[in-house]
Write a structure and sequence with these properties.
Blueprint: E1 2-7, E2 10-13, E3 18-26, E4 32-39, E5 45-52, E6 57-59, E7 67-72, E8 77-82, E9 91-99, E10 105-107, E11 111-116
Parallel strand pairs: 2-11
Antiparallel strand pairs: 1-3, 3-8, 4-5, 4-9, 5-6, 7-8, 9-10, 9-11
Length: about 120
């Protein structure tokens, strides 16, 4: 089992920055991908960014150039640096840990990010 815990959400004004953290613990081994998703009220959960255990990253078009995903493998922690936040970035942000070989996934409970205009 893997436990995933997000932190760092909050209320900010448009144009400001915020950094989310996601710590994974438990049976951490082998290649994996950690990812951030977000879900706004009444909408589906969308992929925001991913990072492999080797450091390869991908981003959704909506956040490209504004958000940066990074990870500290020694701490089993992934970060999401969010700059130039917009009201449309308001959502619950979820972190996911996925074992690359088996495909088994573990989700966190989410952290709320609210951007006021």
């Amino acid at each position: 089992q893997v436990q995933v815990v997000e932190s760092g959400g909050g209320l900010v004004q448009a144009g400001e920055a915020l950094t989310l953290s996601c710590a994974a613990s438990g049976d951490i081994f082998g290649p994996n991908v950690m990812a951030w998703y977000r879900q706004a009220p009444g909408k589906q959960r969308d992929l925001v960014a991913t990072i492999t255990s080797g450091g390869r990253t991908t981003y959704a078009d909506a956040v490209l150039g504004r958000f940066t995903i990074s990870r500290d493998n020694a701490k089993n922690t992934v970060y999401l640096q969010m700059n130039s936040l917009k009201p449309e970035d308001t959502a619950v942000y979820y972190c996911k840990y996925r074992r690359t070989l088996s495909g088994v996934e573990y989700w966190g409970q989410g952290t709320q990010v609210t951007v006021s205009s």
